[in-house]
Specification:
With 298 residues, the protein is an alpha/beta fold. The chain has 2 domains: 216 residues, P-loop containing nucleotide triphosphate hydrolases (Rossmann fold, 3-Layer(aba) Sandwich); 59 residues, 2-Layer Sandwich (Alpha-Beta Plaits), CATH 3.30.70. 35% of the residues lie in helices and 31% in strands. The strands form 3 sheets. A 6-stranded mixed sheet has the order 6-7-8-3-9-10. It has a 4-stranded antiparallel sheet with strand order 2-1-4-5, with helices on one face. A 4-stranded antiparallel sheet has the order 12-13-11-14. Strand 1 and strand 2 form a beta hairpin. Helix 2 runs parallel beside helix 4. The protein is globular and about 70 Å long.
Length: 298
């Protein structure tokens, strides 16, 4: 279990992280969200022991983060952190040695992961000769093949096509089942919704929203209705509680202020030729835009 307790970090007069607390349990995938410059990278560096917080503390399984504990952490950075002139084999031996693994164990795990990601033929290729997607696979492998207790994923799907995204998702779920605590950061909200049970949204280093995703969505109240058919959409726009109506390729998206408005919208279209009337929760992307935008205004 990772425990972050009231950490703050300043660079001169700039407060990068402001009294941040959260817990990531064993086998839990936790979302850390925010715009660029919100304090996510500083938070990651404090968790990994690369920076000291001015106040507050971080612990992994009850122990403070130090040089020994960092061997139990894996980190996939948004930027490439590979040594481009090394071969894949040399790269993984180097990283494995840094994590305290013996070479025979490194080679065994390397072959297993390369086969899992269907890139065994690149074992003796230099990193710089690989595509961006395959480089990202090697970066992921180098972060996890020592079986970390905590894994930090910062935009892990960069450069991957849908097939390889699924491949990496499956690998992440396998690590979760083994009890690995995972922090997931991405600007692609659909991935956050798919993976994360809990999250924190940062603005200027401070948490403005936190908790279980399902509870956050329930408290938000606003919902969407997807409509398809031969509909008098101008009549829908007059319904009290309808916030916005936008065109879709095959219909309309109607935003309503709360669930109780849905029957009123249905009454407005029930005499039309309705093919689809689908009531949905607001997306996490919508919640993020409203909460982060509102925080800037305030």
């Amino acid at each position: 279990m990772l425990k972050v307790e009231h950490i703050s970090k300043s660079y001169g007069n700039h407060l990068a992280v402001d009294d941040l607390s959260f817990v990531v349990n064993d086998g839990e995938i936790f979302g850390l969200l925010g715009e660029n410059g919100a304090g996510k990278t500083t938070t990651f560096r404090i968790i990994m022991g690369l920076l000291d917080a001015n106040i507050g503390k971080v612990s992994l399984n009850g122990k403070p983060i130090d040089y020994l504990i960092t061997n139990e952490i894996g980190f996939v950075t948004e930027e490439r952190s590979l040594l481009s002139k090394l071969t894949v084999r040399e790269q993984l031996i180097f990283y494995g040695t840094l994590k305290g693994l013996e070479e025979d164990e490194i080679l065994k795990k390397m072959d297993m992961w390369l086969e899992k990601f269907q890139i065994t033929e690149y074992k003796n290729r230099k990193i710089k000769e690989l595509s961006k997607g395959n480089q990202q696979k090697i970066q992921f492998i180098s972060a996890v093949f020592h079986e970390p207790k905590l894994l930090i994923l910062d935009e892990p799907f960069t450069g991957l096509d849908p097939i390889n995204v699924k491949m990496m998702k499956d690998a992440i779920y396998e690590l979760q089942k083994k009890g690995c605590s995972i922090i997931f950061s991405s600007h692609q909200m659909e991935h956050i919704e798919e993976f994360c049970e809990k999250l924190v949204i940062l603005v200027k280093g401070k948490s403005i929203l936190s908790g279980y995703v399902k509870d956050i969505k329930k408290a938000y109240q606003k919902m969407n209705i997807r409509l398809r058919g031969d509909i008098d959409i101008e009549k829908v726009k007059t319904v009290s509680g309808v916030l916005d109506v936008s065109n879709l390729v095959d219909g309309y998206l109607v935003k309503i202020e709360k669930e109780s408005i849905a029957p009123l919208v249905f009454d407005a279209v029930k005499n039309s030729k309705v093919l689809t009337f689908d009531l949905q929760e607001a997306t996490l992307n919508e919640i993020f835009i409203e909460k982060v935008g509102g925080a800037h205004v305030s």
